[in-house]
Design brief:
Blueprint (H helix, E strand, L loop, with lengths): L4 E4 L3 H12 L5 E5 L11 H5 L18 E5 L3 E5 L4 E4 L4 E3 L2 E4 L3 E3 L16 E3 L3 H11 L4 E5 L3 H12 L3 E6 L11 H13 L2 E5 L3 E7 L2 E6 L4 E4 L1 E4 L3 E3 L2 H5 L8 E2 L11 E3 L4 E2 L8 H15 L14 E3 L7 E4 L8 E7 L4 E8 L2 E8 L5 H10 L8 H5 L23 E3 L4 E2 H9 L5 H8 L9 H14 L1 H5 L1
Parallel strand pairs: 1-2, 1-7, 2-3, 7-19, 9-16, 10-11, 10-16, 11-12, 18-20
Antiparallel strand pairs: 4-5, 5-6, 8-17, 13-14, 14-15, 21-22, 22-25, 23-24, 24-25, 26-27
Helix pairs in contact: 1-7, 10-12
Bound molecules: flavin-adenine dinucleotide.
Flavin-adenine dinucleotide (FAD) binds next to helix 1, strand 2, helix 2 and helix 7.
């Protein structure tokens, strides 16, 4: 296909776009990536940090440059929209007919006396990239104590990972409870209790006031007058979309690079996807939207579907931390409807549902709850909740229109139920892949991409494959 497409950024969005373009026969694609290695699954860095997988398992194999001019370790320094070219830091100029910005986001380094954001002390690492993960792992070797600044999703995953490596870990969080963007105060408190049992202590409603660090350790001063000492400090204070290139090129930027339903920026020859893009009120910072956006851009640029448009889907957040089951969706603390809650702090269990017009508007499920799959499906698809709501709250088997936990009962799941949230793969797509000839878990994963994002659905996919291998009438009839 004729037009030259240049993608800036070889992260999860840029690499996926290259693969989507390649799959549709687009042959003039250049991807410029500042990181020195091939694309990898950034989400799985938490799992790598926890020691559950090795480095080779975070590589994104689909995007290894087939038919794509991939330039790694090269950064785009400027965009010349008038000339239709980008300039790279190795002195090259690359012409484009269409440019896609997939520059992602950067970790926020908080303003703190003693912390120079341009050259943080040796034992202080902001957690975002594979290089950061490697550094944390090196520092953790032989270390006894670690501090994590930030009690959001990323901070808690890092804290749990370090605790799993045998370190004493303390999390410092400025809000009175953990993960305030997804949880309420009760859930936050129960989560802190579960973390304590796993070797992670939490210091809440305190802000850091200063940092001293030397090659042997760090000391963090807190707003309540205390100081905390550790061998390393991990910063998990949020991310900021990387919009510098777009801004310098005169594109319209709010918190992210503003895009429309076609992912076009204020210049129709330039698109933006992933963490750097803002469609609607705020950037999402999640992979499912990034991958959905990559698909839409590929459909549009190749002419495969000129009507393709990006439609945001409801977001489900799951914590990837061994020993903690947590799923959160919607805003349980605000909005109309009836509320149901169940709390059993001694067992680390909490459930809160908000139901509006017979539909699930929001939910928090903390601790072992077998209904989690059904709750996610109800939220995702907007189907009516079952008459017996206690089933959802307490985690008993769910009947009626509520669907079922995939691994427990794939037969009861509707075909349209989304199994893999990251790649938006339905049960029907898994079944179709099986009927198309895939016979093993790995073949189904390769054929559908289910399970290749956060990995949270891999048990569910395995459950469906197992169920098909035992019951599929097509197979039985052969
Ligand atoms: C530890 C961790 C766990 C996470 N867990 C989850 C999760 O469970 N679920 C979820 O949905 N999301 C999760 N996320 C967020 C998820 O990783 C991001 O949403 C996703 O990576 C966004 O993809 P992206 O390509 O837009 O950005 P990135 O993956 O950040 O890629 C951007 C790339 O662009 C490159 N770049 C930037 N500027 C330039 C330039 N000028 N020239 C060339 N290259 C450039 C960067 O170096 C980078 O490689 C997690 C993130 C982290 C760090």
């Amino acid at each position: 296909m004729g037009q030259r497409v240049v993608v800036v950024g070889n992260g999860m969005a840029g690499a996926r776009l290259a693969a989507e373009l390649h799959a549709r026969g687009q042959d003039k694609v250049t991807v410029v990536g500042a990181e020195p290695h091939r694309a990898y699954n950034r989400i799985m860095l938490s799992t790598l940090l926890a020691g559950k997988i090795g480095e080779q398992e975070v590589e994104l194999t689909e995007a290894t440059g087939r038919g794509v001019d991939l330039r790694t370790g090269v950064a785009v320094r400027a965009i010349d929209r008038a000339a239709g070219e980008v300039r790279t830091d190795d002195g090259d100029r690359i012409g484009y007919d269409h440019l896609v910005l997939a520059t992602g986001a950067r970790a926020v380094v908080p303003a703190l006396p003693g912390l120079d954001p341009t050259s943080p002390p040796e034992r202080v690492v902001a957690f975002r990239s594979l290089a950061d993960c490697r550094r944390i792992l090196t520092l953790a070797e032989g270390a006894r104590r670690a501090l994590v600044l930030g009690g959001g999703l990323l901070g808690l995953e890092a804290a749990r990972g370090l605790a799993a490596r045998g370190l004493e870990v303390a999390v410092v969080h400025r809000v009175p409870y953990l993960m305030e963007r997804q949880l309420d105060a009760v859930a936050g408190e129960i989560l802190a209790g579960t973390l304590a049992e796993l070797g992670v202590t939490t210091h809440l409603a305190v802000t850091p006031t200063g940092l001293t660090a030397d090659p042997t350790g760090v000391r963090l001063s807190l707003s309540d007058g205390r100081t905390l000492d550790a061998d390393l400090l991990v910063l998990a204070c949020g991310v900021r979309p990387d919009t510098a290139l777009a801004e310098a090129a005169g594109l319209t930027v709010d918190r992210g690079v503003l895009v429309d339903d076609r992912l076009r920026t204020s210049d129709p020859r330039v698109s933006a996807i992933g963490d750097c893009a803002q469609h609607g009120a705020a950037p999402t910072g999640l992979v499912a939207p990034a991958w959905a956006q990559a698909r839409v851009v590929a459909q549009l640029l190749t002419g495969q579907d000129p009507q393709a448009r990006y439609r945001p889907r409801p977001v489900v957040t799951r914590l990837k931390a061994a020993g903690i089951d947590l799923a959160a969706m919607g805003d349980p603390t605000n909005g109309p409807g009836e509320e149901l809650t169940f709390a059993d702090p001694t067992r680390g269990t909490y459930a809160r549902l908000r139901i509006h017009d017979d539909r699930l508007a929001a939910a928090i499920l903390l601790g072992d709850n077998p209904s989690v799959g059904a709750v996610i499906q109800l939220f995702d698809r907007g189907h009516p909740v079952p008459a017996d709501r206690r089933a959802l709250l307490l985690g008993r088997a769910v009947g009626g229109g509520g669907g079922a936990t995939p691994a427990a009962s794939p037969a009861l799941m509707p075909d349209a139920a989304t199994v893999c949230q990251c790649n938006t793969v339905s049960k029907g797509a898994v079944v179709a892949c099986w009927r198309g000839g895939a016979r093993t878990f790995d073949e189904v994963v390769a054929g559908t991409r289910a399970g290749t994002g956060c990995g949270g659905c891999r048990d569910a996919v395995a459950g469906i494959v197992d169920w098909l291998s035992r019951t599929d009438p097509v197979e039985v009839g052969r």
